[in-house]
Amino acid sequence: MKSHFPGQIIPDHHKDLRDTTYKYNILLANNFRLYEFIEAHPSNSEKFKRIAWKNIEEFNFENSRKGASFLQSLRGYINRVFQDNNDGHEIAIRITSAFRPVEWEKLQGRSGDSIHTLSLAWDIQPVNCSLRLAVQIMKHLENIHWSLDEGHQGGFAVKRPTYNGSRIILAGFIHYDMGRKRRWYY
Ligand SMILES: [Zn+2]
What we know:
Strand order of the largest sheet: 3-4-8-5-9
Bound molecules: zinc ion
Number of domains: 1
Structural class: alpha+beta
Distance between the termini: 30 Å
Number of strands: 9
Order of helices and strands: HHEEHHHEHEHEEEEE
């Protein structure tokens, strides 16, 4: 069953919705806004955003709200443990992928079965901190969330950082989902 958006924000014309920023800018949790769950893409692809809005009927608002609540807790945890290591600045979470429409998945040569299509999966990376700290935080999350018994009660996966010598080029990301308990590396 799909719940889509609550009635008042079902888009009649996607472009109008995008132009009317208050509608898709609403907060789903203190630090997470609706559009982040619709438009997130690792390289902010305009093509992805276009396809996401075109297929907005597949987007699940309630599942995204669950995601926002989950990520808000995670953000709180990260700051309780690591904010002091970030000169006291709050560490934020960037969502690099959330909802993915089936049309997009097929275009990427994927099955279309991903939990991302159900708006129940989120790829994230810590931001507003150094890459080094982001990597340290993700390693910590891997340590505490990898265990099937005591870790994340859903899908959990890790894309490890990319190095050039000792220099971090890409921080990598962590995938969380609310599907079956599974673990993998990319
Ligand atoms: Zn993912």
